[in-house]
Design goal:
- With 71 residues, this protein is mainly α.
- The protein has 2 helices and no strands.
- The longest helix has 39 residues.
Length: 71
């Protein structure tokens, strides 16, 4: 596995874990703004995970189809 892939996995899981930890322990729960930021951290981690697993491959496949039609 490439170093970049490993670091991305660690960063992604760290982001989702940090967001969940901070929200669960009340560090980001005292105001609506802090709750919004906490939820954003969690959703960003989930989105990043989806992109790495499925989104990138889907975009590359669609671009390959478009390139093939143009030729």
């Amino acid at each position: 596995m490439e170093t970049q892939t490993i670091l991305a996995l660690i960063a992604r899981h760290g982001l989702t874990t940090a967001g969940g930890f901070l929200a669960a322990h009340g560090y980001l729960g005292s105001s609506t703004t802090e709750q919004f930021v906490s939820a954003g951290m969690v959703f960003a981690g989930v989105g990043w995970s989806w992109w790495q697993k499925y989104g990138h491959a889907a975009v590359v496949a669609e671009l390959a189809k478009l390139k093939g039609k143009r030729s």
